[in-house]
Amino acid sequence: MKGMFRTGLILLAAAAAACAPRERTLVLLSTNDMHAKIQNFPRLAAAVENCRDTAQLVVLVDAGDRWTGNAYVDMAATPGMPMIALMNRLGYDVATLGNHEFDYGMARAKAVIKEADFPYVSCNWVDLRTGLRVLPAVKLFPAGGKWIAFVGITTPESFTKSTPAYFMNAKQTKYIYDILGGDDGKKLYDAVQKGIDKAKALGADVIIGLGHLGVDPSSSPWTSEEVIANTTGFDAFIDGHSHTVMENKQVYDAAGKAVTLTQTGSYLANVGKMTLAEDGTITTELISTADVSDAAVAATAATWVKEVDEMLGEQIAVTDINFYISDPATGKRRIRS
């Protein structure tokens, strides 16, 4: 993938400094809650490629919610495909599932997993008919003489923040899939701990949580902070779901060890950058994508935008009433009301 996005690349000096070479270090670049913003993908491509040009070892990961919220992806001929195609092109290494990955139905969710050139991980999505996980819990990568493991975690809120029927049989008489959570969180904590323990058994030197859990109080007892506090073994945690801009928060696990928790916000405004030094030190920062863009990726994204624009431009009705996404008086969003 190196050099693929050089055409028209505008380098951001701050990003270059953030990704300056370090002796035997690993750089983890992360995204979360992109929500189909393919218009912003050229900015992501430029920032990622700039880091690949300057850092020694780079792994690119995503913490869920790749679509829902943008007609250019949700109304594409093959829903979700524009995002997957761009992620394949950019060379993602691993991803987990957010609640919105199920918004096109279970069959489409499984099809998208196969269409991706990168693996998905989730330790707590299970098929109730077999009692087995639908996806691997862990993915390992060799890096500078060490092994780094990602444990994937999906929010149990997927049942209510997607469509419950998608997790049921065809007659909608019973659930055939579960996202392990538990009213007290214990099912989730147990599933995560098993994933951590498996990573250790496979020889992982560094274990990273790749979760779509968030930190909103309304998500309790399934927040990333609660998962960290009720497990042991994570060295760091890359989060999503709550759209929180969190560069570096220290959360203590069940053994009293400080675990670095980070999240980029949403809509590709930032790229998360986690650096693992040879001595095991972990540092995190957020790289703004505001002033970078890749012309080649922009041209590709524009083809999907044009296709949907032409469809949306068709007049289907006329009304004297003005429709607003946000209340014109208060500015408060009311599109879901």
Structure description:
- This protein is α/β, with parallel strands linked by helices and about 325 residues long.
- Helix content is about 25%, strand content about 25%.
- The chain is built from 9 helices and 14 strands.
- The chain has helices at about 15-20, 40-55, 70-75, 80-90, 105-115, 160, 185-200, 225-230, 295-310; strands at about 25-30, 55-60, 95, 125, 130-135, 140-145, 145-155, 175-180, 205-210, 235-240, 245-250, 260-265, 270-275, 280-290.
- The strands form 3 sheets. A 6-stranded mixed beta sheet has the order 6-7-9-10-12-11. A 5-stranded mixed beta sheet has the order 3-2-1-13-14. It has a 3-stranded antiparallel beta sheet with strand order 5-4-8, with no helix packed on it.
- It is globular, with a radius of gyration of 20 Å.
- The chain starts with 12 loop residues before the first helix and ends in a 25-residue tail after the last helix.
Distance between the termini: 44 Å
Radius of gyration: 20 Å
Q: Percent of residues in helical segments?
A: 25-40%
Number of strands: 14
- Give a short account of the largest sheet: 6 strands, mixed
Overall form: globular
